[in-house]
Structure formats: structure tokens, C-alpha cells
Amino acid sequence: MKYLDEFRDSELAGRVAAEIKRVTTRPWMLMEVCGGQTHSILRFGLDQMLPEQITLIHGPGCPVCVTPVEMIDKALELAARPGVIFCSFGDMLRVPGSATNLLSARAAGAEVRTVYSPLDAVKIATTHPDREVVFFAVGFETTAPATAMAVRQAAERGLKNFSMLTAHVLVPPALESILSAPDCRVQGFLAAGHVCSVMGHQEYEPIARTYRVPIVVTGFEPLDILEGVCWCVRQLEEGRAEVENAYRRVVRREGNRAAMDLVSEVFEAVPRQWRGVGQIPRSGLGLRAPYARFDAERRFTLSTQSVPESAECLIGEVLQGKIRPPQCPQFGTRCTPDHPLGATMVSSEGACAAYYRYREQTV
Amino acid sequence: MSTDPSNPSPTLLSAACPLPASQHPRVLLGHGGGGRLTQELVERMILPAFANAHLDQRHDAAVLPTAGARLAFTTDSHVVHPLFFPGGDLGTLAVNGTLNDLAMSGARPACLSAAFILEEGLPFETLQRIVDSMKRAAAAAGVPIVTGDTKVVERGRGDGIFITTAGLGWIHHTATIAPASVRPGDLLIFSGDLGRHGIAIMATRESLQFESTIESDCASLVEPVLALLEAGIEVHCLRDLTRGGAASALHEIAGAAQLSLFIDEQRVNIRADVRAACEILGLDPMQVACEGRFLLVLPAAAAESALAVLRKFPTSEQAAIVGEVKERGRTPVVLRSRLGPARILEMGSGEQLPRIC
User: Fold this and answer.
1) Running DSSP on this structure, what letter comes out for residue A5?
2) What is the mean pLDDT of chain B?
3) Are residues A121 and A195 in the same domain?
């Protein structure tokens, strides 16, 4: 298959792996930022192709995982309101709130619909003028343009029955939060290629400079990831700390101007709570004043209180790369994809789910 | 029974105080997905309630001894939305699904029953099209539909039409086609490409547009399976790759036989358009349903002659060896990725949910 098989070629992968081995002289700890990369690494066994000195730490780049319990509870409350059609990406449906999840809410009678695009939710609002349609806007910079487009379409159509519960998050503030932690072990980043396809990689340059850390924009296929590791290790070995783009077939330094303009027309940076991590300033997107009428939290009076996160689930440690999923005492015993304690076990980009799905020691 | 779970647990079945049917208070859509939740439902509620020697075999069809012969008996309910999809409809599924369950025990289907639950307001034209499809599929297999029933429920109390079919078939061979016959060293054959039915349904349901139309693989497997048996090929186990896809079938056999199955990703045939759709949706093609594909487990020495037989039939002309059976290791089903490293092949949980990005 074009653009897929070429990047899964075993001979080429072997060659890049050999090059990594050749340039590595010391132990290095790299963090792949995006959960999609984590899944590729475990699915294709890429970590097993690397020299022992290279440790991959799994980063916080799973939007489903970092959405706080409180936000899931708000979603459940909205979904349960009479007359509401609650639209969400499939990923969010299994994520546990403090008592239940959206799949169970649907079984109990709530109208929860899986959509593939935020624009589908706008369509549903247009065809159901007698119903309140709420979209659960979750995602990093990658999905933000589509969400912004949905808001603009709703405004242009004068929809009065469309709103969104916004949990959008941004990558660079999360990287800074990881780097400024006193026990930070990360020495280099594989930046999330798809986030950079929207945002470009200019905004990572100050981070690389300030924290003296190499950042390599990396794709998601096996060859992309091995290439990213290779470039990052090479920088570390040579004592460089730059932003490099190993995903040139998709990412340009300046990003996608039209998408960025759309996002900044609709959204502004706001402080956001990250599950298991806490609040990070300017790390989320909130609707700007002219679009505030589409904010579900303003439109509906919600009774959801801030809830403490489960002490059993070590999701915060996992998301910050402090522990590996199998090191959590609940992993594979009290916490499984069918009966999860935390989002990382059920999201298609969650690190715990990746280990549960692909790693032998988990069986 | 087509929801044959793996890892039979005798202690569970004989427990005096049954476990709760589920950790979930209500039935979830995922309980019908053919994955771990379905397994939980069947193991905790259905099997303990009706336990008997035939049911406990947990095969696609029960094999009943009668005077001088063995009889295979199976039933399956069919619900699908939309009712019509590229490559088939509810009618073709309802007939072929039950024929295939009989075929998986090596039986020659003798007759079928069909029970219809119709929702008030269903257009007769829709029903006619589905009945015509059933007629064609049954005639193609040479199997009569000999009894049936119709019920109508009020509008809003059904989803248009549900069909339950049951089937009887005669077993003319003496082999035990079951997980218990599987041996280390056996080879695994998939009868064709994987995942087309599930993707065809999902694409129609969600109006996803791909460059070409992906058609369901829905077909009767009776002919290729009987041809294998008539050619005298030693067959150890058969399983159709329906709900839960290849992953569920492999796990069911590995669990019941207490062996490990190794699959070579490189050898598994998944069409480029199906792979692309799965990549976009974040689905594992090995967990996507087929309706006209089966897994064949047989001794290595019989593999080549089996392939020669299978390749004579359009539904199985792309049959290929995809892996082998080994002694039970830590992992029941192992997939060797195309880059070399091995990983577990997971059984799906239940409902397949597309990802965010």
C-alpha cells in the first residue's frame, strides 16, 4: 500500500537499526511524545530492535488519557440530560469517569453517538433542530482545526442547538512541564508528527534552546520512528540540541497556515487540568468570546464537582514517563481494557493499552 | 454456537454459587462483539444455566449421536444494520451463517429453519428482497428451509427485522473436528483475505468513502470444507472467522486446546483497501469480522494437498498457510510482525471504536 508498505520494509528498518547501534556509545533516554508512536513501537516491537543503551519513555501525547475524570463526569452528566444527543469520538466511550463511562450511559438510555469528525456533530444538530447536540471536543493540535471548523460552521448556520464540551490540549506546555520537573530523566524528544503537520515545528525551537534538549519531529510508521531515534541519538552523541524534522513528507517548519489561523480565530490558550499531572498554564484551548455561546459548560448548568482521581490508578506516573505500565500493581489484574481504572488502559493511544495488547509479559 | 469462548473453566461451570453475570450492570453493545465481553456473557450466564455434555463442547454446532450416524445441530440469530450492504444483505447472512456453522463441524447441511421478528411498518418490499436472498443462498447450497415462524413487534420495539436460523446436518466422516484434536506442529490456514465484511458494513453504516467499494466476503463455506473431507484430508479443527475476526477464532482454539498459536503477519492476506480503512479507523484487521472465511488447522503433511483443494473454489482460492501450532507457552496467540519481533495478538474487547486521530 502506497505510503505504508514502504515505511514498514523490514530490510530498510534493519539498516536504520544498525545505524542507531553504530552511533550509540552511551545510555540515552528518549521520550516519544505521542501515544500513536507508543503503539507503533510496541506493535512492531521497535524497542526490541534498539541497542540496550537506548530507553524509550512513553510520553503524555494521548488526548483521551490526559482528559481529567471531572471532564468525563461532565460529559456523562450532559449525555444523561433529556433531549441531548451527545457526540463523541469512539475513543472516549470506554474511558471511566468516577462512577461509569459513556458506553454504560448509552446502555442506560443516554443518546451517545460515535462520530468520525466534529462536522458530523454539526450535521446532526442541523437535522435535529428540536434536540440539543453536544460534541465532546477532545484532542491535541491535530484535531483542533476540525473542531474550530465545526464551531465556525455552527455559527455560519446560526445553529442554536449545538455546543461543545472542550477538552483540547496543547503539546509544547506539556513538554515544558516534563522538562522542568526536578526528576526529569528525558534527554531527547521524538515530537508528534501529526501535531507538527498542523503547527509546524518553530514553536519547539525555544524549548530545545532553553532546556538544551534535542527535539526530532517524527512520524508513526516503523521506519519513521527508527529514523527519529537515529537522528535524536546522533544529536545527543554530538552534543547538539536542535529541532530537526524527520517527517518531511508531512511536516513543514511553518506548519499549516490556514489551519492555524482557523484555530486561533475560534480558540485561545487557557489553563487546563491534565489527568494525573495537574494544571498546566496555557496548555488548553478554550472558545473565544465571540463563540462562547457554543460552550456547553456555559449553556448548561452542570452540577459536577471536581472529583479526586482514583489513588489506585497510577496514570499520572505513566503519562509523565515515570513508570512503565507493567510496573503499576493494578496492571493486568484489577485494571484491564474491559474493566479499566484509567484512560491509558482503554484509549487506542494509551500506553497501558499498548502494553496490554502487545507485550508478552502481560499475559 | 458461534460465540465459542476460550479457556473453559470447569470450576466456574460447577461453582455452587455463581459469579455475577458481569461486572457491568447492563448489557453493553460490546457484549455482542464476539470478543472478551461476549466470552464473559456466555461463560458466566449462558453456560452455567444450561450446562450439558454437548453444550460444554462449545463448538460452532453440537454433534449428536443418533442411530447409526452423527447429527450436527446449530442456531444463530442475525441482526445487521444496514440490512443491505455491498456484497450481501441480512438474508444471505442468515442462511450462510448457519450453513457455515454446520460446515465447521464437517457436516453436510440437511435443512434449515428460519424465524423472523418483524417490526411494525417494515416495507414489504424490503422483506421480499431479504426473503429472495435467503431463497437464493439456500438454493445455491441445495439446502431447504423446512420450518419457520414469524412474529411482529410494535413499531420502535425492533430494528426492522431480526432473523434466527437453525440448521441440521449429517456428519459422514469419523474424524473429531474440534480444538481437542489440534496438535503441536499442526499448520494454520486462512481460507482467504480477512476483514472485508466488517469494513463493508462499517463503511456503509458511516458513509465512509473509499476509492473503491469494499464488498462483504459473505459466502457459504460448505463446498470447500466438504471437498477437503471428501478428498480424505486429515482435518483437526475448523472455525469460521465471524464476530471478533481471526483474533477471536485463534484465541478460542488456543484456549480450548491449551496450546500456543503462532501467526506470521507477512503471510496474512488483507486487501490493500481493507488495510487502508483499518489504518484510518484505528482497527486491527485481525479483529474485524468476516462472513465467508475460515481457519483450518491440520497436520503439516496434509497442508499442500489441502491448499490444492481449497484453491478450486472461488471463496477459498486465496487460501494460504499463515502459521503453526506449538506447545503452550506464556502467550496463547503470538504474531510475528513483518519486521521480525513477535508480539501478542489480542482478542478484541467487544465493540470496535474508531479512534480520534
Assistant:
1) G
2) 88
3) no
How many angstroms separate the CA of residue B240 from the nearest CA in chain A? 23
Q: Quote helix, strand, coil % in chain B, to nearest 5.
A: 35, 25, 40
What confidence tier does B357 reach under pLDDT thresholds 50, 70, 90? low
Residues A15, A78 within the same domain: no
- A7 at interface of B, judged by CB pairs closer than 8 A: no
Q: What CATH number should be reported for the domain holding residue A268?
A: 3.40.50.11740
Residue A10 · residue A325 · CB < 8 Å: no
A10 has a chain B CB within 8 A of its CB: yes
CA A89 – CA A75 distance, rounded (Å): 12
Query: What was the pLDDT predicted at B12?
Result: 35
Residue that is written with C-alpha cell 508528534 in the block: A192
Number of domains in chain A: 3
For residue A352, give every residue at least 6 positions away whose Cβ sits within 8 Å of its Cβ, in sequence order, or none: A318, A325, A328, A331, A335, A342, A344, A345
Q: Are residues A70 and A160 in the same domain?
A: yes
Q: Do A91 and B337 touch (CB under 8 A)?
A: no
Domain coordinates in residue numbering, chain B:
67-172, 179-344
Q: What is the pLDDT of residues A135-168, one digit of tens each?
A: 999 999 999 999 999 999 999 999 999 999 999 9
Helix (H, G, I), strand (E, B) or coil at B195: coil
Name the pTM for this structure: 0.81
Mean pLDDT, rounded, for B126-136: 96
Please name which of B219, B224, B246 lies closest in space to residue B235, comparing C-alpha atoms. Answer: B224
> Do B290 and B245 meet the contact criterion of CB atoms below 8 Å apart?
yes
Helix (H, G, I), strand (E, B) or coil at B332: coil
pLDDT digits (tens, 9 = 90+) for B189-236: 999 999 999 999 988 887 777 767 899 999 999 999 999 999 999 999
**B43 in reach of chain A (CB within 8 A):** no
Of A8, A63, A94, the CB nearest to B338: A8
Task: Please state the ipTM of this predicted complex.
Answer: 0.74
CATH number, domain B67-172: 3.30.1330.10
Q: Is residue A175 part of a domain?
A: no
pLDDT at B166 over 90: yes
Q: In this structure, are A137 and A118 located in the same domain?
A: yes
Count of A–B CB contacts within 8 Å? 118
CB contacts, 8 Å: A107 with chain B: 24, 26-29
| A125 part of a folded domain | yes
Same domain, A164 and A58: no
Q: Per the domain annotation, does A221 fall within a domain? A: yes
**By residue range, what is the domain housing residue A132?**
65-170+255-299
Is the CB of residue B19 less than 8 Å away from at least one CB of chain A? no
Range in A153-162, A242-251, A278-287, A320-329 the model is least confident about:
A320-329
How far does A357 lie from chain B, in Å, by closest CA? 5
Same domain for A295 and A344, yes or no, is no
Please tell me if the domain spanning B67-172 has the same topology as the one spanning B179-344: no
Q: Kindly report the nearest CA distance between residue A358 and chain B, in angstroms.
A: 5
Q: Does B280 touch chain A (CB under 8 A)?
A: no
Secondary structure element (H or E) that encloses residue A73, with its range: helix A69-80
Judge if A127 and A158 occupy the same domain.
yes
Could you give the C-alpha distances from A212 to A242, A315, B306, in angstroms and in order? Answer: 8, 28, 62
- pLDDT of B350 higher than 60: yes
Q: Do A104 and B30 touch (CB under 8 A)?
A: no
CATH superfamily of the domain spanning B179-344: PurM-like C-terminal domain (3.90.650.10)
A304 belongs to a structural domain: no
Give the number of C-alpha atoms closer than 13 A to the C-alpha of residue A352, restricted to the C-beta side: 35
B 101-140: CB under 8 A from A: none
Quote the minimal CA–CA distance from A24 to chain B in Å: 21
Q: What is the pLDDT of residues A13-46, one digit of tens each?
A: 999 999 999 999 999 999 999 999 999 999 899 9
Residues A126 and A272 both lie in one domain: yes
Give the amino acid at A88.
S
Residues 170-209 of B with CB under 8 A from A: 206, 208
- pLDDT value at position B356? 61
CATH number reported for the structural domain that contains residue A56 in this entry: 3.40.50.11750
The shortest C-alpha distance from B320 to chain A (Å) reads 20
